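Good morning N.,

You mentioned wanting to compare the apo and holo forms, so I went ahead and generated the holo version with adenosine-5'-triphosphate. This is what I fed in:
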Amino acid sequence: MGSVIWAVGLTKQYGDQSAVDGISLEVSQGESVAIMGPSGSGKTTLMHLLSGILSPDQGEVRLRDGSEDGVVVSALSAERRARLRRERVGFVFQEGLLLRELTARENVAVPLMLAGSGRRRAEEHADQWLAALGLAGMESRRPGELSGGQQQRVAIARAQAVTPGIVFADEPTGALDSATSTQVLDALLNSTTSRGAPLVMVTHDADVAARCSRIIRLEDGRVVHDSRVEETRVEESR
Ligand SMILES: Nc1ncnc2c1ncn2[C@@H]1O[C@H](COP(=O)(O)OP(=O)(O)OP(=O)(O)O)[C@@H](O)[C@H]1O
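and this is what came out, ligand included:
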C-alpha cells in the first residue's frame, strides 16, 4: 500500500525539553494508527508535526499530493501550509470545536466554501455527509441543540467533507461516555478508511486503540513500540 505521509528524523524541542526526539515513520493508505503513551510523552506534538501545524527543528514530513515524492510540508511557506491543511488534511479534536452560531449544515459547508465551492453546492454536499453520519433531519440544528456524540459526528462530517488525503484526531472520544464513544469511533473509522485515507489518532484509551490497525507507543519523545514494525519483524523471521 502506498504511503500517504512519511516523516524522517523529526525533532522538536521546547527550551531544553525534547518533546519529540528523532521520530521516523510512514503511514499508508487505509491504515488506522493509534498514538499512545504517558502524559507528556510527545503524542500531541508528534501529531502537530505530522499534520503541519508545527514545524520540526530537524527532520521533514512529506505528504502525498499526486507527485511521486510528495510535498515536503515543512518547506512550504506558512500560507501554503495553511492551505494544504485546509484542503488535504482533516482534523477532529476532543471537543468538536464547532461554530456555535452556525447550524450543523453550515459548520460542514464552511470548509468547502473556503476551498472554493459555491454555497448551494457546499450545503448539498454537507447534507450528504451529515446523512452518512446518521444525522439526517438535524441539519438545521445548532451545536447547542445536539448531544455530545452528535456534535462529534458533525465535526467528523466537517473533517471528511473536503475528502482529505489523511485525517488526524486528538482524543476524539475523550469527552464521551463509552456507548457514545463506540458509535463515534465507528463513524470516524468507517468514514476515513472506507475512502482509503489513513486515520492517525492520539488516544489514552486502550479500547479505542484496539480498534485501530496499528498502535504506536511513545515514551520521552521516542517510539518505543510500533505494532507494524513488530509484525514486519515476525514475518521476516519466518
Ligand atoms: N508549547 C509548549 N511549550 C513548552 N513545552 C511544551 C509545549 N507543548 C508541549 N510541551 C512539552 O513537550 C512535552 C510533550 O508534550 P505533548 O503535549 O506532546 O505530550 P502528550 O503526550 O500529548 O501529553 P498529554 O497526554 O498530557 O496530552 C511535554 O513535556 C510538554 O510539557
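The CA atoms of residues 216 and 226 lie 4 Å apart.

Happy to go through it together on a call whenever suits you.

Best,
F.
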